[in-house]
Structures are given as C-alpha cells and as structure tokens.
Design a protein that fits this description.
Layout (H helix, E strand, L loop, with lengths): L7 H5 L5 H9 L2 H16 L13 H21 L4 H11 L4 H16 L2 H12 L5 E4 L15 E5 L4 E5 L7 E2 L10 E10 L2 E11 L12 E5 L15 E5 L2 E4 L8 E3 L5 E3 L9 H31 L18 H36 L6 H29 L11 H8 L9 H17 L17 H6 L13 H23 L5 H7 L1 H24 L8 H19 L1 H6 L5 H18 L3 H6 L5 H4 L10 H10 L12 H17 L1
Parallel strand pairs: 1-5, 2-5
Antiparallel strand pairs: 2-3, 3-9, 4-8, 5-6, 7-8, 10-11
The chain binds octanoyl-coenzyme A and flavin-adenine dinucleotide.
Octanoyl-coenzyme A binds next to helix 6, helix 8, helix 10 and helix 12.
Amino acid sequence: MDGIDHLADERNKAQFDVDAMKIVWAGSRHAFEVSDRISKLVAADPGFRKDNRPMLGRNELFKNTLRKAAYAWKRIIELHLSEEEAAKLRFYVDEPAYTDLHWGMFVPAIKGQGTEEQQQKWLPLAYKMQIIGCYGQTELGHGSNVQGLETTATFDPQTDEFVIHSPTLTSSKWWPGGLGKVSTHGVIYARLITDGRDHGVHGFIVQLRSLEDHSPLPGITVGDIGMKFGNGAYNTMDNGVLRFDHVRIPRDQMLMRVSQVTREGKYMQSDVPRQLVYGTMVYVRQTIVADASCALSRAVCIATRYSAVRRQFGSQDGGPESQVIDYKTQQNRLFPLLASAYAFRFVGEWLKWLYTDVTQRLQTNDFSTLPEAHACTAGLKSVTTTATADGIEECRKLCGGHGYLCTSGLPELFAVYVPACTYEGDNIVLLLQVARFLMKTVSQLGSGKKPVGTTSYMGQIEHLMQCRSNVQRAEDWLKPSAILEAFESRAARMSVACAQNLTKFTNPEEGFAELSADLVEAAVAHCQLIIVSKFIEKLLQDIPGKGVREQLEALCNIYALFLLHKHQGDFLSTGCITAKQASLANDQLRSLYSQVRPNAIALVDAFNYTDHFLGSILGCYDGNVYPKLYEAAWKDPLNDSVVPEGYHEYIRPLLKQNLRTARL
Ligand SMILES: CCCCCCCC(=O)SCCNC(=O)CCNC(=O)[C@H](O)C(C)(C)COP(=O)(O)OP(=O)(O)OC[C@H]1O[C@@H](n2cnc3c(N)ncnc32)[C@H](O)[C@@H]1OP(=O)(O)O
Ligand SMILES: Cc1cc2nc3c(=O)[nH]c(=O)nc-3n(C[C@H](O)[C@H](O)[C@H](O)COP(=O)(O)OP(=O)(O)OC[C@H]3O[C@@H](n4cnc5c(N)ncnc54)[C@H](O)[C@@H]3O)c2cc1C
C-alpha cells in the first residue's frame, strides 16, 4: 500500500534476536528454511488465493477446494517436493480438504495397522494418489464409544470374503472427512464376526467408488452430511454419510497387524495389545497438539499486531491516543495467550518425540509405554485444543469490533478450529481417560511399582502431600523449582483426593461416574503440569541468540503464573500455597507483562507467518490496517451496485407508503 512499516517503532524496541527466535520456534534451522521457503511459495501463487472463501456458496466453495487440492498436488510433483515439503505446502495452503484425511489418517491407519504385505500393496497407490482414502469410524449413533459401533464385517468362508453391512440407521457412518464426495476408499471400522462370534471393532480397507467414473460401488449409499458452523470455514470439507448393504470385500482387506482371520475363518490375536486398533488416534492426537500452537499463534499474531496499531483514549495535549496494547487489561488477556502458543509449541515437540519413541519400542514388541502415550496424547490434545479454541475467540474480542469482520481472519479461524475440541475424541471423554490412568497410578503407589515418565513426580508423594511453598517475595516465583513444586503438589493432591473419594464407593465404576467432574479437574491439573515442566525443560537446552533465552523464560513464567492465578482455587484449597503467595504470583505476573511488552511484536514476528497465511487485515505485517479495511469494504459484492438489488421490490414501496402515511 503506502510501503511504510507502521510497526517499525515496535520492531525497533525488541530486546532479542528475532531471527534466532524464528529458528527456536520452527524447531531447527532446517525446519525454518523449509517452512520459510514453502510459505513464500504458496503466498506468491495466485492459485492459492483464499480471501474470497466467506463469499462463496457451498458448491462453488467445494469445487474451488477440489481445484486447489489438485493444483497443490501438481505443484508438489512439478517441484519434486519431499514428503516434509509437501506437508508444509498443504499446511500453508490453509484450506481443510479431503487430503488432510488421506495423508493424516488413511495412510497412517494402513501404516500402523496393516501387515507388511498390506502396506506394500496399498501404500504406493495412496502415495501416488491413485486411490484417495478416508477414515470411517464414527457412526450416526456412536462416536465417543468406539466399542459401541454397529457396522458389521461378517466372514463368509465359502467365498473368503467379508460382508460389510449397516444393520440400522444409527450404524450409518457419519462425519468422516473426505467421504462425502471424494474418497475412493476408506479404512472402515466394523465389528468382526466369524462363525457367529463377535470379536469387536476392527479396521477394513473398503473401496467405495469406481475408479473409472467415481460412482458409488453396488451396495454403497454415500453423500455429504450438510453445512457446518461458519461461512466458508470447515465447509470446504465433505464430511460424509455412508451405508453398506452387504458389500463384499476380499479377506485380505482386513487390517491384520493386530489380529487375523485365517482362510478357514479362525480368529487369531497377535501378541500385540488390542489397543493398537486405536493407534491411528494416538498418532493424530499428537499432531493435533502441534497444530494447536499453530492456530493459537496465528490468532495471537493478529491480535498483538492490531493491539499495537489500535489506539483508544489517553490523548494528551492533542497527541495520539494510547495504543490498546499498553492497557494492563489487554496485556492480561493477550500475553498469557502468547505464552501459551510458545508453551504448546514446545510440548508438541516433546510429544512428537514421545510418539516416535513409543513407535520404535512397538517395533521391538515393547508395549510398556503405550498407556503413558495414550494418556499424554489424549490429555494434551484436550487441554491444548480447549485453550486454543477459547484463545482464538478471546483474540477476536481483543480486536474489538473489527475482530468481528471476516477480513480480520478470526471468525473463520475460530470456525475451522473449534471442532478440534470434539473430533479425534471429545475433550471431556479424553480427560476421563487420563483420569483413569491417574487413578491407576495412585492405586499402585504403595505397591513398590515406581511411577515413571510424566507421572514420576508421584514417586515423591509423601513430600508432595505435605509440602508448603516457601515463596516469600514476588521474585521467588521466578524460580523453576518453586513453580514445579506448586504444580506437582496441586496435581498430586487433586489425584489423591479423587482416589480417596473413590474408595467410599462399593462399586468403583459408579464412583468414577459420580466423581467424574472432579476427576476431569485432576486430569487438567496433571496435563498443565506436563506443559509447564516441558517448557522448563526446554529452557535447560542450549538456546543461542541474543536475549532469546530471557524472552522464553519470561513467557514460561507468564504461562505458569497465569495458570496459577486462573486456578488459584485449586492451589489454595489443596493448601499448596497461601493467599499471600497467590497475590505475590499476581504481582510477579504484572511485572512480567511489562517485560514482554516491548518485545511483543517481535515475539509474534518470530512465528514467521506470511500475510497470505494469516489471512487478516488486522494482522498484516506492515500494520497499515485502516486503508486496507476501507478498501476491502468496497470489494464486498454488496457494494457492486450503489442501489441494492431488491430496492424496487422491497425498499421503495415501503418508503412510498410511509410518505402516504405521513401525509395523512
Ligand atoms: C488430520 C486431522 C483431522 C482430524 C479429523 C478428525 C478425525 C476423527 O475424529 S476420527 C474419529 C476419532 N474418534 C475418537 O477419537 C473416539 C474417541 N473414543 C475413544 O478413543 C475410545 O472409545 C475411548 C478411549 C474413549 C474408550 O475406549 P474403550 O475401549 O471403550 O474403553 P476403555 O475401557 O476406557 O479402554 C480400554 C483400554 O484401552 C486403553 N486405550 C484406550 N484408547 C487407547 C489408545 N488410543 N491407545 C492405547 N490405549 C488405549 C485404555 O487406557 C484402557 O486400558 P486399560 O484396560 O489398561 O485400563
Ligand atoms: C469436523 C469433524 C470432523 C470429523 N471427522 C471424522 C472423521 O474423519 N472420521 C471419523 O470417524 N469421525 C470423524 N468425526 C467424528 C468425531 O470423532 C466424533 O464426533 C467425536 O469422537 C465425538 O463423538 P460424538 O460425536 O459421538 O460425541 P458424543 O460422545 O455424543 O458427545 C456428546 C456429549 O456427551 C459427552 N459424553 C460422551 N460420553 C461421555 C462420558 N463417557 N462421560 C461424560 N460425558 C460424555 C461429551 O462430553 C459431549 O458433551 C468428526 C467430527 C467433526 C466434528
């Protein structure tokens, strides 16, 4: 526009090396370089334009998504992109599409649950996109309760086939992304029945559509489930409904890594745990934690830049009004979200490491860390997506009225993001899984079995049950040991209190149901401890770059002390800290906000997002918000004509009638 950087003064205030922080954020220099190159490539290509999405009707919108996905694939091939680069390209294209499920769930399901032979047969087809797959688990009547699925896969020994069938309306597959209009195949979850016996839910590769003309195969009824929340937003995705009427597939299309059916129809279980059938969900939950930091950082980048541009009140002697970012209330809402974005980034990195470690162990038949991996992925998915969805909405409010415009990018970001609280496991249902894991851990404390991994803090249960924080001055809260002890004792005491209450029930399942709200809170406390402790661990690493470590320390402290403030009821009622110490934590938090304030713009610049990816006038890099908002308004189709369509039908008769009434 005017070529001026309206945020230049803000950028000059930064007390740290932004380029070094960009590398910390990306995870490595290599990751930064890939990300930087691919994001610029996407931003510069008009084929990936996305600013018209909220204006398009569903059919137009969907066709446009198909075009973009095909174009993205063409570019991936033309540019010989690696798997890592291709994934980055899809990420920066920033449009939910069937490809997310193809690459994000269909391929991982075959990799995780298929035998070597099955992988060799199906993966090359999927990698070349000669088949397109979805993940068909959820049904109209059953989502959270996977064991309650009704679709059946009955083995027919005469023909060596499975017969896939939807016996009831509620057994219709419902929700799978990419299913509605695109997928040619699906990994379909169904109850395996051999010789009249039900062996529970298993995965099957089922062809759904003809590879010649895309029509559904005989016995298959398939379509889209309809419009979802928000304009544009997730409506680029064809979430689908699917029914089977005795559809036959060859026996070797059951995913047979976990269990097998022989030619004679004998059901055999491998020596791997049955829970591996749920393995794809563990994988995807781990990726969702990393995505949370992306979505939150994006919203925070918009709100932070706009808060530095926006001025309200406080003008003295005719000078400019105050930047809203200087109001403590704005900082108290914004900076904890900035800190959370960084916190989720680092816990996401750690979770990826944990997942890789578990996968390697599984290959050598070591299943010992699977329960911990399940609890961590489930819990962190839940806590980070809830905070991110709430955080995006808070960022919208932080931008005042302009945040409500689609051109702010925030309404669409929220609408696309909020189902993450539900898909891949409802957040409450997942926290209850964590609570079960914690109750098991507590019940084993006296047995001599040492808690390991993220529950190892429970090994010092006696200390944690009676320790008192020794914080005396606000600065004492800057000590990682003070923070860790408070978070560990809060989490331990909440879990132990639940475990003690559970003993009052003769039927443990009844007790678990009755106490489930408390159990969820204990699970949240445990997950927040993991995030805080992984941030602290990150700070123990070598962090190059002038001032980078200091900024990260400040953000880590803001994250922890903000949580402590928000959940002070937990910390006080469990006696981990006193009211005076809670108040000192708040004093420290205020001073940390002042420390972060001059660095705020540079801290969001470190995310290295292009204006294309942000998709927000309020968050644009140069901060030249008002001319852009003004110009964009005139581009709205409603402004194509000065006198609106419908004037002669609906406005003029009204005005004329009013005129007559006025004369009367
Ligand atoms: C690319 C990104 C786009 C994303 C698009 C979204 C795609 C989707 O939404 S796909 C559909 C996702 N669906 C879900 O997530 C459903 C959520 N529900 C579930 O995961 C399960 O039904 C669940 C875990 C709630 C309950 O499982 P269930 O077997 O009934 O009960 P439960 O008795 O609690 O578990 C049995 C055992 O398995 C363990 N377990 C459960 N899940 C897992 C898992 N994923 N991994 C390892 N172990 C597990 C439990 O800890 C328990 O262990 P133990 O017996 O030692 O205590
Ligand atoms: C955008 C989107 C995309 C999706 N994509 C796919 C896909 O590709 N493939 C696929 O198979 N599925 C997909 N799903 C389905 C998704 O995985 C399920 O919706 C999800 O697992 C939640 O299940 P549900 O809908 O049955 O919720 P429900 O379980 O019916 O939840 C309703 C309410 O009941 C509560 N509740 C349920 N059980 C308990 C309990 N035991 N204790 C306490 N409270 C409980 C929940 O907390 C919630 O408040 C998608 C969903 C969405 C929204």
